[in-house]
Amino acid sequence: EFGVGKTTIAQKVFNEREIERHFDRRVWVSVSQTFTEEQIMRSMLNTLGEASAKDDANELLKKINQYLLGKRYLIVMDDVWSEDVVWWQRICQGLPKGNGSCIIITTRIEKVSRKMGVKEVRIHRPKFLNEDYSWLLFRKIAFAASDGNCIYPDLEDVGKEIVEKCKGLPLAIKAVGGMMLCKTPYYREWRRIANHFRDELIENDNSVMASLQLSYDELPSYLKSCFLSF
């Protein structure tokens, strides 16, 4: 599921102090939809050491092996899309084995994780946030100026209505919460946003995309053109 927090969970693990102490080497690779096997290996080497521009895939893999040999390593392959995992099989075969090393894969396609060799018992499926946690996350962002406390009683019900439309997806909640932080704390303004969000969801039954569209729609015109220039 898009926006449920897969990458965020992996980042929390990756940056945990105990994890940092436990592993000799940690490598984070953002795979995404557009990648080549060589780009991934060069990304790994950017963390581990140096690679020559002339190095081909075999040379790159040899260097990765040398840098990791005898080390306990953690590798994160983040946001893998392709069901064709031949590239991963080649890289995986070239990695040193043993020493208690670990590989984490994040993907929104469960078939990909299975093809990459992840056993069922090792698959973690992040859950949607429940009503209380959704509201807590929203409050921390939308009411950051008051330390996450909703100090406007007339905004609580409409705020919870907005959060409910996010369907427990952290990315949607963060996007809308960040937008509401910049809005005046008036009921009429918040009601207008809630109604707009409802209309967006009717057109696009995806709370993350609807929240992102809503955030864009609410930008002033000069910022819309700046945003689109990217």
Structure explained in plain terms:
- The chain folds into two domains: about 5-120, P-loop containing nucleotide triphosphate hydrolases (Rossmann fold, 3-Layer(aba) Sandwich); about 130-230, no CATH class.
- The protein has twelve helices and three strands; from the N terminus they run ααβααβαβααααααα.
- The protein has helices at about 5-15, 15-20, 35-50, 55-70, 85-95, 110-115, 130-140, 155-165, 170-180, 185-205, 205-215, 220-230, and strands at about 25-30, 75-80, 100-105.
- It has a three-stranded parallel β-sheet.
Write the layout of secondary structure elements.
Elements: H1 6-15, H2 17-22, E1 25-32, H3 37-48, H4 57-68, E2 73-80, H5 86-94, E3 102-105, H6 110-115, H7 131-142, H8 153-164, H9 170-181, H10 187-203, H11 207-217, H12 221-229
Parallel strand pairs: 1-2, 2-3
